[in-house]
Amino acid sequence: MSETNSPSERIDIPADLLAEVLESEQAGGIAQQLRKLDRPWAILLVLFCVTGALGLPLVWYSSSLSKLNKFLLTILVSVYTALLLGGFSAIMVWVVQQIASVF
Q1: Is 89 inside a domain boundary?
Q2: Structural domain of residue 45, as residue ranges?
Q3: What tens digit of pLDDT does each residue of 1-55 get?
């Protein structure tokens, strides 16, 4: 008889093997990097200096922020991103007008 593994079957991993994998150097390095990103100041830095609204999933996956803070940050980052895009659009319209006036 051949055994088939369906996705719904549970795979039992021995606890000692799981602990060994989790304590490995590579897993520890990844976990340490994720912990650095889960700090509120790091999330704010990424949101306002790097990603804007594209960083919102980072906010919602964070365990260091309360739901109220996540909600408020979402609104704040959305408004911030809209203002940046509006400002960029206004500058581009002005630049196009300046170029058109030269020709």
Answers
A1: yes
A2: 15-102
A3: 445 555 555 666 676 666 666 666 555 665 666 666 678 888 888 888 888 888 8
